[in-house]
Amino acid sequence: MNHGFASLVQGGSCEPFHWEARPLGSQEVRIHITHCGICHSDIHLIDNDWAISQYPLVPGHEAVGVIEEVGSQVDSSRLGQRVGVGWQSQSCGICPQCRRGHEHYCAQSEATCVHRHGGFARDLVVHQRFAIKIPDEIASAEAGPLFCGGITVYTPFKAHRIQANQTVGILGLGGLGHLALQFANAFGCQTYAFSTSESKREEALRYGAVDLVGYGSSTFQKLAGHFDFLISTVSADLDWSQILKLLAPEGTLILVGASPKPLNIQASMLINGARKVAGSVIGNPMDISEMLAFCARSGVRPQIEVLPFAQVNQALDKVRQNQARYRMVLGWDVT
Ligand code: NAP
Ligand code: ZN
Q1: What is residue 177's predicted lDDT score, i.e. its pLDDT?
Q2: 87 vs 89: CA distance, rounded Å
Q3: What residues have CB less than 8 Å from 79, skipping those under 6 apart?
Q4: Which residue is closest in CA terms to ligand 1's atom 15?
């Protein structure tokens, strides 16, 4: 048997839950979980915001632990290895996207906690490709948030070839945003944080922001036309026509936050100055390894608050109320 915490109904609290342990496929590994971060996508899933949730729902896709069992075709040297699992836990491996190394675009992709039980659990079974080794320099509690939050904001820098000295605005200083700020700073960008929370100013500056700017403030107006890139990690709707005014000609707004409503944008806002709007989703396993190595070297780390798994609902409430500073992490052996 496996056990953990599940939301039993849409929007419900997470309750202790037991289920039949999954048999191990030949290419799979069983991970004994020590920690799991809480991403806002877990909240979207619990609330069925994307109309894909099934209950009981065991959330969790920033899982970290130790490989305790390996399938018949997995090298036994992986036993005891410290690994993490992010949003994705399987891909077909043979489609053109997978063969190009873009597993995260695979149409057959499986998500760790969609239609299967995720990381708010004692054990997790995944294909060995998606159980990614954690560098020794990164503590287990800090590693979890890198597997979804971290890779999601690392990928845009790589995919859009964002360079040192370019001007980057990070919208929303939550789990993803505070990591985006650190990456932008580590890559040598000139970085601004856009936030509804003046209380985050001190940390924003510590993570390298030139300034923390309120939406619609006088500083916001002065920064019109200033940004090569804006990365939105905001989980809510913004006044996108105002946000686009911040972009320099040929600038790009990259959306990673899942704003619920359609974007209300005039074509002329993109046509004039050839501005662009793009989306970005997680990252492939190779890039996760690369990002982990970068964090190990550069010192980029999530700022976390660790609670025992038994306090999962308190931790979820903090995320819902935008009180997390900046990522809540659940741990089994935490008191
Ligand atoms: P989070 O920790 O809750 O942070 C979201 C931040 O958005 C908040 O801290 C807040 O920052 C800002 N915000 C919240 N409500 C707002 C509002 N009404 N108006 C303006 N700003 C608001 O969430 P997260 O875990 O970082 O995730 C952020 C989003 O990314 C979620 O929608 C999640 O589903 C999505 N996501 C996408 C991917 C992907 O692959 N594309 C991967 C992971 C997560 P301030 O206090 O600074 O204003
Ligand atoms: Zn996530």
Answers
A1: 98
A2: 7
A3: 67, 68, 69, 70
A4: 236
Buried (b) or exposed (e) across 61-72, using 16+ Cβ within 10 A?
Answer: bbbbbebeebbe
pLDDT band at 22 (very low <50, low <70, confident <90, very high): confident
What are the tens digits of pLDDT across the range 137-171?
999 999 999 999 999 999 999 999 999 999 999 99
What is the average pLDDT across 210-226?
97
Instruction: Measure the CA–CA gap between 229 and 191, rounded to whole angstroms.
Output: 10
pLDDT digits (tens, 9 = 90+) for 183-203: 999 999 999 999 999 999 999
Mutate to test the pocket of ligand 1, among 151, 284, 322, 329 (most ligand atoms within 8 A of CB): 322
Q: Whole-angstrom Cα distance, residue 83 to residue 81?
A: 6
pLDDT at 321: 97
Q: Give the other-Cβ count within 10 Å of 46's Cβ.
A: 23
Within 8 A by CB and 6+ apart from 224, the residues are 245, 246
Record the pTM. 0.97
Ligand 1 in reach of 257 Cβ (< 6 A): yes
CB–CB of 182/153 below 8 Å?
Answer: no
Stretch (H or E) spanning 96: helix 96-99
Residue ranges and CATH numbers for the domains of the chain are 2-138+301-331 (3.90.180.10), 151-279 (3.40.50.720)
Return the residue whose CA atom lies nearest to atom 16 of ligand 1. Answer: 236
Q: Which atom of ligand 1 is nearest to the CA of 255?
A: 41
Residues whose CB is under 5 A from ligand 2 (ion)? 39, 41, 148
By C-alpha distance, which of 117, 130, 108, 230 is closest to 170?
A: 230
Greatest Cα pair distance, the chain, in angstroms, is 62
In the numeric block, which tokens belong to residue 149? 């939050």
The alpha carbon dihedral of 116, 118, 123, 126 has a sign of positive
